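Subject: two folds for Thursday's group meeting

Dear M.,

Sorry for the delay on this. The cluster queue was jammed most of the week, so I only got both jobs back this morning. I'm pasting them in the order they finished. Each block is the input sequence followed by the predicted structure tokens. Could you check whether the formatting survives your parser before we put anything on slides? The first protein is the one we discussed after the seminar.
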Amino acid sequence: MRRSYTFLLRPTARQAAALTACLEDHRQLYNAALEHHRTAYAKAGVSIRYGDQSADLKHIRSGDPGGQGRWSFSSQQATLRRLDKAFAAFFDRVKAGRTPGFPRFKGRGRFDTVTWPKDGDGCRWDSQPEHPTATLVRLQGVGHVRVHRHRPVKGRVKTISVKREGNRWYVILSCDDVPAQPLPATGAAAGIDLGVASLVTTSDDEHLANPRHLAATADRLADAQRDLARKKRGSQRRRKAVARVAALHAQVRRQRLDHAHKAALALVAAYDVIVHEDLRIANMTRSASGTIERPGRNVAAKSGLNRSILDAGWGVFLTILSYKAESAGRELIAVNPADTSRTCARCGHCAKENRLTQAAFRCTACGHAAHADVNAAVNILRAGLALREAAEAA
């Protein structure tokens, strides 16, 4: 199986400056390639392809040995492929009739990752294995950078990426052939209902808390954004204010990720089969503002709900749960969420009136009363087991 590892980099001041220059040169390469696309089509109606721009790299590097020529050729090809994927996604959206969203030029704050597609080609993980105390990664044009490796790396390192988050630098390894780590069978199965009050509610009436990390940081974040709004564009004070806002968002992101890992691990350790709703989170968090001609209703309430859903991090949690279940040899089943919260788990009666409040469920047909999320989790489990039995019978 494939797995990614993220480690904090500890570059020297000179290496940090080199990493910043590497990121900037790759950003300029991306923007120049995008301008090439735009100009060729506007002036001559010609579509530029990745192969054409990759062939031009040799001339670009030879003409700028102190700039573009310093960095790995393969990493620059990866940046051009990134633009090519952006155009491919644009045309897919056009064909599907969705809002296309033409690829945009990247500002300094919107280009934060450089990728080396192959370990050993312009980069080398664990470049000094004989070092007694430290792990280092070698990056062309930067040198041997110290890595805070807090856990072992398993499998074969395939690609290496460097990412900047605020004032921090991270190295991200994508590894193939990572061995699975199956857990002992428990013989238990559970349905899980994702929510805002509790991140996860199981069919066994267990509730995993939703810490609401963004809400807990809202006051500090509001102060930082208010301070940023007062700063003059281009000033040193504004740059510091931007870094402060970015650091707070990064802290919330790390806290959310850490909690998702712990919650997913607890479920994988306890159950052999886990059934969850096949949620379309992007659709659920779509704005309710509408248009000028047809304005939306309850926009403020919908905005608050969207913010709560995104703060809970359902998508992050389900992604982590998926790969942890695969590694542990557990079975993960996704079911249609329609009416799971309105259907009585005892008699099967489905009605909107069954759910009295966010937390209370009482069936209007048989009188069954339960926590609304537990009732939904039981329905989710039954639907998942039914799908499993149908698949086995087929």
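Second protein, same layout:
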Amino acid sequence: MRCSFLRLRRKQYVLSLVLLLTLCVLLFMQNYSVGPLLPSALPDDIQTFRTYNIDCSAIYDMYPVEVGKSLIIRRKQNVEDTDERLINLTINCSLFIKSRGYDKVCLTEEEKDFPLAYSLVVHKSAVMVERLIRAVYSPNNIYCIHYDQKSSAQFIAAMDGLAQCLPNVFIASKRETVYYASITRLKADLNCLSDLLESKVQWKYVINLCGQDFPLRTNIELVSELKKLNGKNMLETTRPSEQKKGRFTFHYELKDVNSAFKKTLQKTEQLKTLPPHGIEMFVGSAYFVLSRDFIVHVDSSVVVKDFLAWSEDTYSPDEHFWATLVRLPGVPGEVPRSQPDITDLKSKTKLVKWHYLEEKLYPPCTGQHVRSVCIYGAAEMRWLLNYGHWFANKFDPKVDPIIIQCLEEKLKERQKLFQSAASTTCRKG
């Protein structure tokens, strides 16, 4: 009888333990749901873009449980919002503006007096482009969108809808069929820059971005930083290595690959002439922060036009064009040739994490690598926001949607914090 009683007590204990563990699991699942959670319905019952139930402050502070949640979300099949979703949203512009908060953007006096211009060269993922614009949006800024002529009809329609709803967003008047590493990428930016100069907005600086970029600073912070430049330009500009010199020493040709929409740049054995006007070559990035005075000079300079023509048959001319021009003596915001190299880590323009430099110059990528470039994960948010750069590349909601959502949240918090200390006015964008 005693043995039977002990066996019964043991069974009751095990059963209680199982029930307790089951209850804990259910409570955990309830409190830490990782499924997609769309924003609560607006008064007009319109839904916007996919968001997730995550504590971004805990992600920033690297709390293991919340970082673990972000990893679970990533392992699920994340379905990126389609171009059609943005098309549907922009059918009714008033609802689009309300749903995305463009009608709640506030401005300080400092921001009003210092408008910025943006050149966005994009070709896919319309929702990501809109999220990028929303993150850097200010009613007194001006935004030029250049979409690739190869882009899908849905993407083009989404960009047209975006430009139709926002009065300070427009589509470039001339558009290129962009091919990797060719002059077409550079011309896409030049087309936007030309249109931006004709705009009535007297912007102070222009910033170029691509669809997988995202800001690390709010508009008010950018304005404050750019005012400190006092007319100087900010971009990468370094002396070329022997390997990089090969990009503009030989003639390159754009060759067809299977179809007219697939072309590749191929090197020939034909040597090029030296750069015109005795220009000394520098290399850098395709991305820049340039003053209005500098762009006005570029638009009217014979030397620049000759250099552009000379660059037509080079490899990735966008990666030497701007880096060389800012070193020309006498240009507005000149970087003297005697000045040391300005690397991508010294220039605050854009933070890119290269695979081969991880654990040497910066921590490992917590997302995925594509062609040696890190697509960021949520665990890198604190590092990104504190490193000191103004923008970063690359982000992809299919790789990690949490990092984008949390950066949006943190930027909104910072914008409110900075504006709370200043006199602000709010108006529709």
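Two things I noticed about the second structure. Residues 104-220 form one domain. The longest helix spans residues 2-31.

Cheers,
T.
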